[in-house]
Records
---
Amino acid sequence: MKNFVIKIISFIRRKKWLVGAGVVILVVVVLLLGGNGKELKTATVERGTIVAEVSVTGKVKPAQNIELAFEKGGRILAVYANVGDKVISGQRLVELENGDLKAAVLQAQAALQVQGAKLAEIKKGTRPEEIQIKETELAKAKEDLTGHYNSSVNVSNDSFSKANDAVVKQTDDLFTEDNSSSPRLSFEPSDGQLKNDSQSQRALSGGELIAWANELNQMKSGGSSGSALDFLKKAQTHTDIIRKFLNTLAETLNKTTTLPSATLTAYRTSINTALTNINTAASAISTQIQTITAQQLTVQKVEQELALKLAGSTSEQIQAQEALVKEAEAQLAAALAQLEKTIIRSPFNGMVTKRDAEKGEIISVNSVVMAVIGSGVFEIETSITESDIAKISAGDIAKVTLDAYGPGTVFEAKVIHRDISETMIEGIPTYKTILQFVAEDERILPGLTADADILTDKKENVLFIPTRNITTRDGEKYVKLLIDEKNQETKEVKIETGLRGSDGRTEVVLGLKEGDKIVIE
């Protein structure tokens, strides 16, 4: 073709008048003989790996996240953990005031010990020297109990003196007619209700002191030993009422603006002194009650042990005592269960993320006071559209990047759960899916935005071509195959495809071979 064009050009040069016509003829010849002169762009059929992925975005969240509340209300005794503290499973976090329940547990434990001891003695049998030892032990226990009863007079008398000082002396300047049935505050607080409460409680406290004094006289006159404990419990009630009065009076002073600063300071000092005295008195009474109660249990225990030693035992008695031991065990378990309801413990190893409790605060039932997240690996919660959810299976591996660290930091995760029911998001059905990080990493924090590419399928050593160059017609797939590269000749061939990759490549199952070239334009 090249020689033919040269001959035409030579002929035109000899015939000058044909130059114009020659140009036209030359263009026509080039177009006719040289085709369109544009080389086709192609892609080669290659063999390699095709990967199918589903890309999603979600939020990092802890695998375990729980808010904790009490089953019963009460006043907070102590808070043992703060936000950010690491905790272990079973660790105490918050505790309500539970002195009565602890006492019930002690009683139940003592009762169980008593029953267990009795059973052991029944099974063991008794020697005369053992009986003598036990009788001596009982006499000593009763002697100690009598000593505790006698010392109760001193405890009650001292506590009364402190209480009397707190009410009569320390609050004297704050009232007029304070020994009457209608005491009046010597100043005018800004809160009328607190004024009324202070006055009425002062009158009530005066009456408590009178009753207490009468009871103390009865104790001194030789009341029964058993009544000493009753007197102490009444004294405990007196201190509670007086303490309430002093607390009310302190609150009244806090809301008083009419008194001179020096006077107000002096009054507050007096009330603080009174509260210290009454708290000391209450503590002494409580300790004495516990001491007597414990010693009573000791006497009871020793008496029962001696009775067992003195009496012979039969198989029926052993069985009956075994039943009593089981009953005592059940009572202890019940007491411990009630006590545990006043204690919040961490349900797993983790970290405290919320604290909404302070010592002395009154908490209602089911009010959240602590939140704890697990210390295990974190998860990613995301939503996947219905077009992709069928591709996802539990165990699928994903590569994850976190916005906080950029695309250069990659973490590995796996699918652990997908919902079977849809969730509508902006009118589009989606399915909640959970991915779990494979390894723990201190850089992973709850709330971070995560981008995950979930590997749903992978094929190696397969033929592939660019997806965008496949034509679909009547359900069949076609490509333009270059069959003559020199003359740029092509033909359309039908192919069968397999896996469609996420990177724009599609597997070719039939119709092409490795090295074939297909037209991409």
---
Amino acid sequence: MLRAEDIRRGVERLLAAHGLVSLAEFPLPCGRRLDLLALDRSGRFVAVEIKTTLQDFRSDHKWGEYLPWADRFAFAVPIGFPVDCLPPQEGVVIADRFEAAWLREARERPLAPARRRALLLRFARVAARRLQGNDGADPRDDG
């Protein structure tokens, strides 16, 4: 069975191949941590929630809280995951530790300009803190 870290690695490679930069365990203003938040060259955000098993998906209902924080949302799952159990309006990425592929594109939900600006600033600050050797969390960032 693949671990979430293995799936994340494959998804990060897919996103990078499409010109996106990503941060794992991204702290959101709502207090949650997103498995992966990616930013494209146009300033649009893609949120990715990793699910390793069907039980993992069924027991975790917090993914809906991530929707207001990205332009697109997708689940990343391993090969063999029963994808018909995932919400049809959300994207699906099939991944292993080496690569990933879009099975279903995520639908577009454009962020409001003020939220996009706040999220862009948070993304930059988290990335900078991680470069400095910190974990990326700062309670002073209010989103």
